[in-house]
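Below sits my pick:
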Amino acid sequence: FWRLKGQHGELVFQSRSLGSSGQSLGFYGSFTRLEELAAEIDPGLSLEGVALAGSVDWRSEASEVTAAVDFDAMGVQYQHIRLPEFQGSAAWRNGLVYTSVSASNPEERCFLEAEGILQPATSATPRLTLEANHVPLAWLQPWVDSSAAHLQGNVDVALQAVGLLTAPQIRGSGTLTDVQAFVPSLGTSFGGSGGLVVEPDGIFLDRF
């Protein structure tokens, strides 16, 4: 095996034979104290550490290369979005990338699940789904003009995207619960509960 070690962690590689048909290269590692590196990517991003494990397999008979990786990220936060539990996986097979992500914030009772199939050669998404439960609307405040509104409440939503990554067609539906939007310029609040519908051309309230 081979070991690469640096100031933030280490990555270990181990090769094994798949008989006469091919070779496998496995790897695993962990990295910590990533706050500064994350901030260089985006000042609003925070990440404490990552643990990962995976393999790359090559089979000579089919001239086929497959790869897979599982990871566990610790201390994930972006702006107001805080997800202390964050796991994911990705696999490469037959020119497609299969991905899945599971994240949660138990304190907020918020859970996120996403699965997708990507086609890098064409930048297409044959399937990408997202299910989010009890997401605090306050997490969206950094993208809302604070002089226009202050948001409170929660949203549950299920979305599906197809098409190109650069211009996906997004559809889905959800529920808004106990929404309150304080408008400073008017000195008053608006709110309620109800449904929402997501279409490629916009987001619409339903029975709100």
About this structure: The mean pLDDT is 91.
